[in-house]
Amino acid sequence: MTTKPLDPPFSVAGQIDADDLRSLSEQGVTTIINNRPDGEEPGQLSSAEASALAAQYGIDYRYIPVTSATMTDDAVAAFAKALADGRAREGGVVAHCRSGTRSAFLWAMAEASAGRDIDDLVARAAAAGYDITPARPRLEALKSSAR
Questions:
Q1: Which residues have a Cβ under 8 Å from the Cβ of 81 and sit 6 or more positions away?
Q2: What is the pLDDT of residues 69-112, one digit of tens each?
Q3: Are strands 10-13 and 29-34 parallel, antiparallel or unpaired?
Q4: Which residue of 10, 42, 90, 98 has the smallest Cβ count within 10 Å?
Q5: Side-by-side strand order, sheet with 10-13
Q6: Residue 41 buriedness (CB in 10 A; 0-12 / 13-18 / 19+)
Q7: d(Cα 44, Cα 50) in Å, to the nearest integer?
Q8: Helix, strand, coil percent values for the chain (each to nearest 5)
Q9: Neighbours of 64 (CB within 10 A)
C-alpha cells in the first residue's frame, strides 16, 4: 500500500489490509479514517475487523463511509472532526477508500469549510495524483460558509 501525502501529517491511500495496519503503525500513523463502505468489494477488510486490528496497534480508527452520492455536509463535518482529532494526536493520519479519491475529496471539503485556500487544496491534491477540480464549486461554497 502506498500513502500519498496531501498535508503532512495527513495522507490518503487506497484500501488497506491487515498487513498494512501493522506497517502504518510502524510508520508512526496514529489515526486511520476509513471512507469505504463495508462490502463495497468482495474480500475487503471490514470496518469491524480493521477497527479491532487498529486497536491492537494503538491506532485510533474512525469509520466514515461515503459514496459520491453520500458525501453530505454531515459526512464532511464528521471527517473534519476526525481529522482534527487525528492531528491533535502525535503521529500521522491516513484516510483511505478504494483508491484514495473519496478521501482526498473529503479532506478538501473539510479544509475548505475551515477557510483554507481552494487553489492550494486543488494543487496539493493534484501533486498527489487526484483531480478534485470537479468539486471546486462545492469547495468555494464551503469556504464561503466558513466566513
A1: none
A2: 999 999 999 999 999 999 999 899 999 999 999 999 999 999 99
A3: unpaired
A4: 42
A5: 3-7, 10-13, 92-96, 29-34, 60-63
A6: exposed
A7: 10
A8: 50, 15, 35
A9: 22
Beta carbons within 8 Å of 56's beta carbon, 6+ residues apart: none
Tally the residues of the chain.
Answer: 147
Q: Give the three cell numbers for residue 25.
A: 503503525
Half-sphere exposure of 44 (CA within 13 A, CB side): 19
Between the CA of residue 6 and those of 44, 56, 121, 124, 132, what are the distances in Å? 24, 27, 8, 6, 12
Cell numbers standing for residue 47:
470496518
pLDDT of residue 125: 98
Furthest C-alpha separation in the chain: 43
Q: Measure CA 46 to chain center.
A: 17
